[in-house]
Amino acid sequence: AGRRTDIVRSSGSGIMGQVKKYAFRRRLEKHNYSLLGAELSDSDADDAEVTPAMEAAAAAGLDASALSHMEARDFAHVTRGGAERIAQYLSVRNHVLQMWQKDTGASLTIERCLSSMPSDTADLARESHAWLQKHGAINYGAIDVPPPKPPTPEPEPAPEPASEPEDAKPTTITDELLTERTVAYLRTADMNTTTEKQIRKAIEAELGADLTEKKLVVRAIVTGFLEDPEKYRDVGKGKGAEERREDAAKAKAAVAKAKADIEAAKPKPTKPVIVVGAGPAGLAAARMLASHGHACVVLEARDRVGGRVHTDGSSLSVPVDMGASIITGCAPDAKRRTGQPWLGVRADPSATIAAQLGLGLKTLGNKLPLYDGVTGELVSDALDARVERHRDALMDRARLRVDREGDDATSKMSLAEVIEDELEQAFGEDAAADAGAGADGAGEGEEDGEKREKVTLTARERRLLGWHWANLEYGCSAPLSKISMAHWNQDEPYGGFGGPHCMVKGGYGQITDALAAGLEIRREVVVKKVEHFGGEGDAGGVVVHAANGETFEGSACIVTAPLGCLKSGDIEFVPRLSEAKSVAIQRLGFGRLNKVVMEFEKSFWDDDVDYFGAAREHYAPDAQATGDDPIGGRGRMFMFWNLKETCGGASVLVALVAGSAAEAMEADDESESSLAASAMGVLRRIFSDRVDDVTTPKKVAVSRWGSDPYAKGSYSYVAVGSSADDYDELGRPEKSSGGRLLFAGEHTCKEHPDTVGGAMLTGWRAARHALHVMNGGSGVPFDEVFKLVSLADIAGSDDSDDSDASGSDDSDDEDEADRGIKTKKEKTKKRRGKKGRHVDGEDGPEDDEKARERMRRRLEKEKQERMEQLAREQKEMTDGKEEVKRVLRLVSACPDGASAPVDAVTFDGMLEMMPSLETASGRGAFCQSAVAKMPRGQLASLALTDEGACLATLATWLEQVTSKPSGKELSSKMLKLLLALDANAVDARALRESGVARVVADRFNAHSVPEVRLLARRCAHHWSKAASAAKARRDAHASKAAKAGLAPEDTPLGDFIDDDDASMDDSDSEREYDPDGKRRKKRAEQSAPPPKPRTVEEIIESAAGLDEGFAAAEAQRLKLEADAALAAARAAAADARAEAVRAEEVAKERLRGVWDSAPRVGKKQKLRMKTFEDFAKHKTAKREHKKRQRLEREREDAEDARMEAEEAAAAAVSEVRSQRRRSNDEDRKRAERSEWQKRVSGALRRERDDDR
Asked: For residues 155 and 775, what is the distance between their CA atoms, to the nearest angstrom?
């Protein structure tokens, strides 16, 4: 649709400025990919030479040295062959692509490809050629592509002279014969397409026997061969080499014939495919379907094709594009790094079609002069650069807010809210009013504990800043107040299209006209309702109802109507669309961008520039006094395009109307004359020095895409509350239709939204979905969604506090995080509250006592922090130097450059040293030495050794380092160490469970130091690429394993085997990760032998010091009872073993009888699929299992008896001790009584003596 240009803003002199490093990249560039590559590049491969294979692969959107996620899914049999087989496939695929790139003006047939390749790669070449054609990599555009020929069956070997009658085929099919023939067929089969049923049918045809009853036998052989082919290595070994070759050829031909017979018997739809809409997506889909030999009918509501690609040839003297006009990338870029786990990006497919048609292209330049739309003055380089710095800082802070608060917290916030808040904090309320009206979002008044000094903007600077907001609205086709702050540039990680942006001389419509040639297109047919229903063959399909009463029946329907028509409900779907798709339609935005095209007698502008800008007031209250346009809006006539070269020398100028201004001009139904007068007012101010040359345009044309009943807007954007998931949902086949109702268009392409090229890619995708249906495929087609794994996904949810560890020295930062981020309303009240006046939401004035107490606590805290800082500095001066020396001594013998792994002694030393390092100096030296001395693979081994203890330690270090500028050096060293780790070895699970991913996401992704923040984002990109690739492999494997409606015998054999890569990726889900060592210690305790229980003798010995001898006797008695119980248990176990041996012999004889007498029908088939020896082995294993269970129970009973005896003995000893204590107490009491009696008797005697 009305596609924005991809230009790099420069100063007024036109000299390219240094690329800015801010997070929200300038949408006018769509996006700053050179910066994206600089941020995300983590390899020296960027400096390598681009080979022809890399160029050809990039032109198809592929990586010359790696499989895409769709290739890994569709060529599972290749990935199972290992690295050698993958390399062979890539060489074949790249060769086919290079042949296509040499001549894209003619169809590349498979015969041409086979003639230039070795014969042993013929099968791969056929598969690769068919796959590339279906995926829009070859044979696309405005060329005639003949339908693929049906595969030629392999010639069967000449039959040998029959030595016996024809009917003398074996009447008995033994298991040995069946195994030999099945293995022979499996050795030649294509595991990706061949099914068990096809092999069985081929054997039936060869042996002339019905193998229905042998179905389970065949399945067992197939399963065994797939699990371990080496087990069948000796099958058929007695044949000679020539005989084996003939046997293989015969088997291959038989499987091919069986496959063809089964495919022919499968019900397939016979009705045409209905395509709703003749725009780029619909035309691309129809051409691909036609090239594969399927009938297709295109229904178009207009009297022309192209949709929002509209070249108006009547309003002006020359054709001019009123809609899409720019090819957004005309050359592949084989070295561009994106967020995806492969290298390179393709060109917009329109560029290839333009080359096929011989159309001239006008490459857009980088020079964009900017004028003050009020005064008409050219903006100076210095002023332009200063405003750009302000803009970059604001957008960078907006990006930081997303990183800090997260996507969920900011999903309901618009760009206008955030920009307004940041403007108000940085420049005051006057500047904030220029960003948007009525925004209400969250914001921070301070960053990293430091107040920002407000800068005053002049009126001109505010206008220039407003021009950038207008340009952003132009890029998204909507006002900033409607655009999602969190996801507005969600397509950025996918890299866009490669090469410069160009305009088509003579109009973009030439490309869509060429695509429409030869297709059956019904114009002026307005679709009102689409009925869809599932079913096999012609039992399922669609019925499309038009406004004129016509109905069209089809096998499938591809709806490419613009999102605006879907949002307004112009097409009724019966049954209704799924809830997810309906919500996505309403949630995703569809905006407006309009053009005012003016043709003059002669040019009065600089013909050396392709465009120039005019910075205007958003809404000027004094418009009449200043001579400005009374109909305001910063997006109104804010940019002008010079189309003189594109329009063949005619003096044509296009003024753009974006944002709220585009909505207002259509809402008010503003006339062409009013719009032209508005544009001329701006031009006369800009070119006031040549006002006599500024003439009135002789012809004017205006686009009004929002008022177009068959568009209702220009192109899609990510509205507030929406995300990239909505693009994915809109592109998925409708499940309720069984894959019969499909969707395409730029609004279904998250990688390239609002582009013609993106629309064409989705048309090819929908055509692939339709081919799945037309070829009789079962189930809903695979949606082909590739979703990038974010750092938040890797980190996972964490309910724990985000506060620092005890060793952290940035308590201020963590206190701020604990308090949370205040809402913008509260902060705005505080900022606007007058000094000394009570503000709502705050406490009143405090009394002196409270103020003194608060000041005292603050001073104590500051004193404590200073003391801690001094202690750390002192420790750095002493312990830090010693730790650095330890690290350097350990690695001193290892060479620099990580050319070879370090020796085992050094490796173990680093492993032991890491947890003991406590100072920043020691930790920094460790990280720096590890990166310098150890290769990536050995670094990963170090990180994962001892169940990831080192990785967990590194996470602790990351938590403890300060986020203030003083921690920049250590943070950088630790993040560089993380970057050096092999992301395929240190996988997402290890990063998540060690805590590294969470710490990087929470503390460094929004770091105050730009260099640290950049390293953190490179780490996130590094991990995301590996995790995305692994997830794509798992998803592809899961989708194959869950094929709906496929019986086991109809499933491709390759689906029964796990991908090597997928299995490797899934293995980490079974690996228990233990960052803190607690689980490891627990397992060690569990695996260690249990403590030896005390024997009865030991108990007796411990009681030997007792005076009472009966305790020992009691313990001895209990011991004898326990020994007797144990002996009885052992005897019983021996009897049981002997009985088991006798029972085994009896069972074996009975089993032989069961095997011989079992009928050959019924439920016993599964058992009869093996020999008797296997059958007996199975039964024996079951008996052994039961016997082990019985013995285990007996052992446990004996152990329980022993423990009970020991407990009884211990109780007896305890009782003896209690009795001894009681006896001692009685003796003591008797002694006390005797002593008392003696004292009493003595006293009585003394009294008697005294009396005497």
From this structure: 25
C-beta of residue 508 within 8 angstroms of C-beta of residue 325? yes
C-alpha atoms less than 13 angstroms from C-alpha of 10 in its C-beta half-sphere: 17
Edge-first strand order for the sheet with 741-743 is: 521-522, 296-299, 273-276, 556-559, 741-743
- Above pLDDT 90, what percent of the chain? 33
556: nearest Cα among 569, 541, 571 = 541
Nearby residues of 700 by Cβ (< 8 Å), 6 or more positions away: 315, 596, 597, 598, 599, 672, 673, 675, 676
Contact between residue 447 and residue 397 where contact means Cβ atoms under 8 Å apart = yes
User: Rounded to whole angstroms, how far apart are CA atoms 788 and 342?
Assistant: 12
1100 vs 181, higher pLDDT: 181
Residue 614 has pLDDT above 70, yes or no: yes
Closest CA to 888 of 919, 918, 933, 953: 933
User: Could you report the per-residue pLDDT of 21-42, keeping only the tens digit for each?
Assistant: 222 323 333 333 333 333 444 4
User: What phi and psi, each to the nearest 5 degrees, are found at residue 362?
Assistant: -105, 110
**Hey, how many other C-beta atoms are within 10 angstroms of the C-beta on 976?**
16
Contact 286, 559 (CB under 8 A): no
Question: What proportion of the chain, given as a percentage, has pLDDT over 70?
Answer: 74
User: How far apart, in whole angstroms, are the C-alpha atoms of residue 1246 and residue 1243?
Assistant: 5
Is residue 258 within 8 A of residue 199, CB to CB? The reply is yes
State the pLDDT at residue 319: 96
**Higher per-residue confidence, 264 vs 662:** 662
DSSP 8-state symbol, 590: E
Residue 273 near residue 770, CB atoms below 8 Å: yes
For residue 958, the surrounding DSSP H or E stretch is helix 936-960
Phi and psi at 426, nearest 5°, equal: -90, -35
- Specify whether the CB–CB gap between 929 and 887 falls below 8 A: yes
SS (H, E, C) 374-388: CCCCECCHHHHHHHH
- Could you report the per-residue pLDDT of 467-488, keeping only the tens digit for each? 999 999 999 999 999 999 999 9
Give the count of alpha carbons within 13 A of 395, CB side only.
20
**What is the pLDDT averaged over residues 770-789?**
82
For 1192, the token pair is 């285990």
Specify whether the CB–CB gap between 971 and 1009 falls below 8 A.
Answer: yes
φ and ψ at 547, to 5 degrees?
-65, -25
Nearest in space to 658 (alpha carbons), one of 525, 480, 524, 781: 480
What's the angle, vertex CA 921, arms to CA 919 and CA 922, rounded to 5?
70
Q: Does residue 779 contact residue 769 with C-beta atoms inside 8 Å?
A: no
Residue 1091 has pLDDT above 60, yes or no: no
pLDDT at position 989 = 82
Q: Considering the entire predicted model, what is its pTM?
A: 0.70
- The answer to whether 631 touches 39, Cβ cutoff 8 Å, is no
> Which stretch of 126-130, 446-450, 452-456 has the lowest confidence by average pLDDT?
446-450
Q: Within its chain, how far is the Cα of 1165 from the centroid?
A: 46
Q: Is the pLDDT of residue 1101 over 70?
A: no
The reported pLDDT for the residue numbered 186 is 74
Look-up of token digits 């994106």: 338
